[in-house]
Amino acid sequence: MKNYLLALASLLLISHQAKGQEVKFEEFDLDNGLHVILHQDNTAPVVITSVMYDVGGKDFGGTADAPRTGFAHFFEHLLFEGSENIARGEFMKIIPANGGRFNANTSQDRTYYYELFPSNKLELGLWLESERMLHPVIDQVGVDTQNEVVKEEKRQRYESPYGKIFETLGANLFEVHPYKHPNIGYAEDLDASTLEEFNTYFKDYYGPNNAVLIVAGDIDTAKTKELVKKYFSEVKRGPDVVRNFPKEQPITETKKAQAFDKNIQIPAILAAYRTPGFGTRDAYILDMISTYLSGGKSSVLYKKLVDEQKQALQVAAVNIPQMDYNIFAMFALPLGEVPLDTLLTEIDEEIVKMQNELITEREHQKLINQFENQFVNANSNIEGIASSLATYYLLYGDVNLINKEIDIYRSITREDIQAVAKKYLSPNQRVEIEYLPQNDEQ
After folding, report:
1. Could you give the C-alpha distances from 86 to 127, 137, 291, 377, in angstroms and in order?
2. I need a surface site. Which of 22, 129, 160, 358 has the fewest CB within 10 A?
3. Fold equal for 2-232 and 255-437
4. Are the beta carbons of 331 and 269 closer than 8 angstroms?
């Protein structure tokens, strides 16, 4: 019955939020540096408690002499093992037993945990997240258990068709920045890591001053403040995180590469560019460009290569968001015997048109409409609101983007689109990758 009520409440909340009204919130800081954002909406009896940590795949564990990849993703799993007050394996049982659900995810730039509960379980959600932050149990049993879990996840992900594409993009686009390594890391790094290294990593990155706590939904703001103080004030401040990643030199000549995948039968062509990080205006414009090129079946590349010329089974242009550098990538699967270079030539033809001609006013208005719809949908439920509040605070440095980011897209002109296409999307600024089936000799 609790799960039914939770689902019904979520549907009611989605309907309410879809109107796109202003998201109101309140912020405060604890003495230990934990930033807290509260969003009260009593429309439905649900509440989300979530914490986003400023740590991701780009933050290596180990030492300067022996850096270890994959630690942040590993901790996404490890911090569900238990705490001094939660027995091993019980964390993931307590939540559904109380009518809730949970999840966590890690990117190259941050790690995010959340629990969605009936609102009368708010205190439980806060206690669980404080236990994760205050005194998790990080021991050899947990490390060994999660090592196998991560290895299995990697097998499933990388052994699926085209599963190595993101690793391939990073490895070929970056020379010195840690984005060149996969977020999930390398098995040999985790195997070689010591328990001391894992404990050090937790102390370095999982302090309250390197995190933001979001409580959103059916709450009383004053009471919630007191509960937050009750459960999080005793957490000790961690060391300040200082990053000084090396800068990449611009790509000035076309780079060509090949990658092989034993799990595919149809080759693919990739063209990838290293572009400004997601907080820049140019990154917003590149979002629009990627949508113009392949955002749905009415987009330029889909209509041309899939529908009309029947040269491709699939085509996509994506602007992959990262803090330091985005990845703007184009991908196509040939139909039949169409050569990969033919697909790339056809794609380039559309980019050159963007560089030489303004897109039409009708196409421009269609893009604005698409992004307005996307913006409303992103904040149409309590989970989306909580994630947006955390992301805009921790990664963008402006929580109020939850209300005004759409104005950035609305301000983008046809001339802006043309200028950014010229600035970043020339062949001499990219890596061209033939993604090929692997045979027994390779």
Report:
1. 11, 9, 46, 36
2. 22
3. yes
4. yes
| 33: helix, strand or coil | coil
Crossing angle for the helix pair 340-356 and 281-294, to the nearest 10 degrees? 120
Sequence ranges of the domains in the chain: 2-232, 255-437
User: What is 2-232's CATH number?
Assistant: 3.30.830.10
pTM value surpassing 0.90: yes
Residue 66 pLDDT exceeds 50? yes
Three-class SS of 220-231: CHHHHHHHHHHH
Distances (CA, A) of 4 to 13, 17, 50, 231: 14, 20, 22, 29
Contact 213/231 with Cβ under 8 angstroms?
no
The full length of the chain comes to 442
Give every CB contact of residue 21 below 8 A, 6+ residues apart in sequence: none
Instruction: Please report how the helices 140-158 and 71-78 are oriented relative to each other, as an axis angle in degrees rounded to 10.
Output: 120
- pLDDT greater than 90 at residue 6: no
CATH number for region 255-437: 3.30.830.10
Contacts of 89 (CB under 8 A, 6+ apart): 81, 82
pLDDT in tens, 405-436: 999 999 999 999 999 999 999 999 999 999 99
